[in-house]
Amino acid sequence: MFNFAKTKAVMAQAKPCPADLTHGSPGCVITLECKEGVKLEALRCALSNASPILREALSLKLAKPGVLELPEDNAADWELMIRMIQPGTYPPAAVNWENVERLLHLADKYDMAVVRGYCANFLSRNTSSLTLSEPLLSPTNPLMAATLVCKYCNLPELKPYTDAVQHTLCAVLAPMSSSAGATVKSLVALLKPLTAHERFHDAIAPAV
């Protein structure tokens, strides 16, 4: 199972980075320049420990000394991820239904296991909120939630979390095998507009 405490302990023991490795940034602090030029500060060591992709990027000479340019990424999402990857207090409210999909996308983009784990943990703890009455593209729809874990969290260490989401989807669809006609009709009424959605086939994972 994904171990937040162990991951944070390892990060807390990270040694300070030599200043010259940041190409001008003092000490181990580096500036992240996100979409629309919004800037945030982060520990280079934390970024390197959390993401092999960022570790590689930071080993190269930066176009702007001491600045890592992330023009496609929202600063608000990065602000949350910095709280996740830097040693400190566990931010239980960092992930929510509004940002979980974006955070999973960034976790996948930069191969950030810690962020992926936070998101998987959030989804597994909030399966009671999943319902087919929600819009297809909402992560609170069990079809989309199952797609997110299938696409971004399909790792052995996250299986306890992803199983919770998959089991919820199975429970929601279970009435399809019921002999109660009214129950089946009610479920079909919910599924019909979802499967007819113009983005159903590209938005929902085939495995779901």
UniProtKB/TrEMBL annotation:
Domain BTB: 28-127
Pfam family, one: BTB
UniProt-listed SUPFAM superfamilies: POZ domain
Pathway the protein takes part in: Protein modification; protein ubiquitination
InterPro entries: BTB/POZ_dom, SKP1/BTB/POZ_sf
UniProt name for this protein: BTB domain-containing protein
Organism: Astrephomene gubernaculifera
Lineage: Eukaryota, Viridiplantae, Chlorophyta, core chlorophytes, Chlorophyceae
